[in-house]
């Protein structure tokens, strides 16, 4: 969609807020509150059933992206066997466990990042913030394997403490990671 067709970006400051439906009481049905009745009006349009075995993959992708949200984005820094530093966003990412801390990042078959992660040098996952979302987005290009996204992103490399790939200095939250199961990674790529 061309940017002139989009609404201007407005930054949202973090704030604790009241519940969107503060009148709700334990056990009360959704149609017994004003907000709930408005929500249920959408049911009159009916349900659409999607069969993923017959749907076009691109349509399934956009359906899932719009339905499963908000979702975190893993901004992964890794290094190839030949020393090329890679920086790429992955929107299929989440926490699996907190102790020990385990995350999952889903990479498409053949993506440089998965090859780099399997190499054993570790990787970093950096959480993206609004002020540099465009820089992170610029790293989602389909670039040749010997291309490093770091210089074109304008982001700052900061040495990691435990893994070889650098973390993103601008990230308010970065994790230095190691692959926990090479067998699982091998079956997916």
TrEMBL record:
The entry's keywords: Flavoprotein, FMN
Q: Is Hydrolase among this UniProt entry's keywords?
A: no
- Residues of the Flavin reductase like domain: 70-184
Q: Which GO terms describe its molecular function?
A: FMN binding
Q: Which cofactor does it need?
A: FMN
What family does the database annotate? Belongs to the flavoredoxin family.
This chain belongs to the protein called Flavin reductase like domain-containing protein
Q: Which organism is it from?
A: Collybia nuda
- Please name the taxonomic classification of the source: Eukaryota, Fungi, Dikarya, Basidiomycota, Agaricomycotina
